């Protein structure tokens, strides 16, 4: 009897659950449908560029998915932003753009790509105005493309040059008794330096200084053109903090006006020649994306496939924020075997990760290159493992502000011997053969085990050099001279021969079309990620973990939480790593 009662209860529970899901589907479909119908652009409108979400190169939404945009998105696609600006350029209803954005959550190369698209937008005689309560350096870099830049009278502008901060954990390890055993190759491969030292090595200091110097020079060059201020004067303004108050910023030429937001809105009205009673039509970017996504800028039976590889490189399937051999190789194979696809562009935005996964993806790129041209476009960062997978292509493009190179490998192994002794833990091992007990975190690392790991590091480094030598058509000795884990900006990478051209994704696509001898072509984007409803179910399942993470960060503070994440990431790394030589926190 109990069995039947429980069975009936389970059946009823399932029916209720399915009913709830069905109702949710209908509601969300209605929301999406109504939102699409409500997006109408009036004549004499202004596109409001307010970037509220973190920016990814690609979010992988399926345009046929009725739930796309119905859920709380965690990021916004750079490809959609650039598409919207490009469509708005030729949209007679859009007369200008208003940038109203603070604390932009994007990488430097992504910001540079948006800035370049805005420069193109102005070529059609349309205006760009920008307003901010406070401009961080990256926000101002974007804003400097505008015809006029305004700020709140009690706001501020941060313009002081770039800096980078690296945290060191050697003393923390000694105090806790938990340490990271480090094996590496490359004098600049300093991803592991925080675990073996208390201060920055001269080699690391040199490469960081040269890197951020090159990035800063690229920013200053663009700001100089946008504002009509010489690079020398901009550096003087940065050195003297000449933009630290709105009044100073206006006097030095960084800004055009110090006004309140209602006064800014009046300037927008004046730019449109509106009367007192005329409505100011501001179109939010999120709404305009719905319209712009329906516009096909490039068309044709022949296609160029754009494969987006973004995030840390880890062994496995991968996803929107993780590069795994599963999802990326599947995308490359689909593009390779699609008869309509005549060329492939691989967009790489990654600090690296698993050397094994990098090599698996590299091999698939080499195989694809045998059938059709493959061009790489580098985003914010394509370093170490990110460069590894890029070097198999026919040609490599990078933004001037891309961080790349970092040809080197390392391994880290956690050890808790001292902690175990302090708290009274003694571990004993029993094995059948001499090396059957490979390693225990509760015992000191043996010289034999360290030797085996070092052997693997050296072998992987040699393989990495071979890939670079083959891909860039240089000798192993030349590859080694550019390696040792050193990082380069896009500008410097072009100078030393690690990339072929400076340019954005559109430039890489144009080169791929040229190599495939295409005049008219469309774009196919890969991979396709999970649908909106699938992501909703996952988000509901992972809500508890997300709440816990947010609670911890709130309790211990964002700085301490950042340290915790770095240590946790290092502890979880498996196998030989080909990743950035440091956590690049540019301020």
TrEMBL record:
SUPFAM superfamilies listed in its UniProt record: ClpP/crotonase
The keyword Ribosomal protein is assigned to this record: no
InterPro entries, alphabetized: ClpP/crotonase-like_dom_sf, Pept_S49_pIV, Pept_S49_SppA, Peptidase_S49, S49_SppA_67K_type_N, S49_SppA_C
Domain Peptidase S49: start-end pairs: 121-271, 369-518
Organism superkingdom: Bacteria
Subcellular locations according to the entry: Membrane
Parts of the chain that traverse the membrane: 7-32
Keyword tags: Hydrolase, Membrane, Protease, Serine protease, Transmembrane, Transmembrane helix
Recorded family membership: Belongs to the peptidase S49 family.
Name of the protein in question: Signal peptide peptidase SppA
